[in-house]
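Exercise 7. Predict the joint structure of the components listed below.
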Amino acid sequence: MKAQKKDKQVIKSNKISRRTLLGGMVAAAVLPVNSIFAKHVQTGPHIAPEPPEDPTKTIGPGPSAQGKRSTFEHPVRKFSETSSRSPLQDFHSTITPSDLHYERHHAGVPAIDPQKYELLIHGMVERPMKFTLAELKRFPAVSRICFLECAGNFRGGKEELTPQEILGLTSQSEWTGVMLSTLFREVGADPKALWFLAEGSDAAVMTRSVPVKKAWDDAMIVYAQNGEAIRPEQGYPVRLLLPGWEGNMNIKWLRRIELSDEPYMTREETSKYTYPVKDRIRMFSFEMDARSIITFPSYPQKIMPGWVEIRGIAWSGRGKIEKVEVSTDAGKTWQDARLQDPVLSKAHTYFRHLWQWDGSPTEILSRAVDETGYVQPTLRQLAEARGTAMGGYHMNPITSWQIKTDGSTLFKPE
Amino acid sequence: MKIKIVVGTALLGLILFHQVSAQQPVPSTHKNGTSYPSRFGFGRLATTAEIALWDIDVRPDGKGLPAGQGDVLKGKVIYTSKCMACHGNNDTDLSKIKLPAPVLVSDTLAKSRPKAIGNYWPYATTLFDYIRRTMPYNQPGSLTDNEVYSITAYLLYANKIIKQNQLLNAKTLPGIVMPAKKLFIMDDRKGGPEVR
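Solution:
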């Protein structure tokens, strides 16, 4: 009890009393401990404390209320006025730390009081109903790991591009919430309803039409991301989750669902998120096509001759990744990469491929194959199928990296 | 996977839904769905007033359009004061000006650029719905229904889709056929090896 009380005093005064720390122990040992602690406390969170020469000879700071990244690690999103991109090159496995999840919103991030939050479900239902956040949490819960990806996820055009800049509008989380089918049964969804409108409570009052069959398949209403409440940028307190489907449809800050017998043709499914295919405009591309990217080695990293483990991620909105093939000779020959278990449906899948680089210049590429037999196409294949004015949505071409003689890596724009 | 469309009593519908959801290839975490009670009793009935407050969507068939009406000339006045600063003056060549917002006027030829309402939007009702829910960008949701009808009329006129004297209301708006509508096709890809 006494010790606890003293701990509090320590925190309050930001000073370490040698009595508190070591009681009656040898005074000489106390001094270095004291100075390290003092430094840590006084420098504040943004200035990295000098690491000691030998960390085995000094006691480090004690427990704290909230953990932080090592002061040597600085993964950050790259952001513009309308979106921010995940630093794919900094990830060693497939769960995106929540604070690095990509963002795309159309009128900023709204602040929503969870106490006042309500979800309305109405339209072609027996009972139009409202659910508070607490009520949503009472329903049987489900957790699911899956990726999200913006349908406009692809940038090219120059050699000096990182994976984050090329393809950073995708991230992966473990989401928790209630199956939408559970709520549809609760309100008595009309079997004649074929679509539902999902609407957000941001200033864009974002809306998309979704086929009702997705609700009976795997759609969820989620309130947690990687174990804690969803981040504001991802829809706090509640968002729609449509595993494998284009990011924009996964309405954030969800306030309303209306069941209907036809789609609403909202601005985001007509003027946006549609793309030219030959002399037509294709709409309602829901599933994200299979794709992959090598995240190591990538620009601006450098490799050395000898063993190099090529690493990256692959995913498909239509199910599991069946295999990822890697080429280290500019696409002449392909070899199967190793996939990290467990391979989940509609989820980023980590792949690795061991390669012995002889120091000569080459190109390395990866292509994903999903369980439907779809093989990630080249840009040329996409252009042949859709025409050259394809626009920027639902573009999933194979991306290649050039390896130069000095080991430097550059994106290969096409 | 197909969802059977069932015409029958509500109760029958519920039972069938039960079976349909049990048949779905859903994540294993969901496979105990069949043991759920038909209702949990959480949540409450929404009142008509609560629904009306949020139910602002408009469908292509006109469902959801409010009473009121607007015309091109009023719309032009409102456009000039509330929209032009970001979307530009539609009487001048906008191709060389960098605007903070998308251009809203295009030729009605599908090939012409930029892609905008006249050559790319398939439904006129979308314009009403979108402007009412979120524009002007700096004051979202601040326009009256009559103002939205008028601006919609002006933008359709500026895009050479309606005549200057056409009134817009819940009756006339859904009847407007947009030039780009015939270009739109639904994605019918289902996976598999073909690249399309």
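Discussion. The CA atoms of residues 107 and 245 of chain A lie 22 Å apart.
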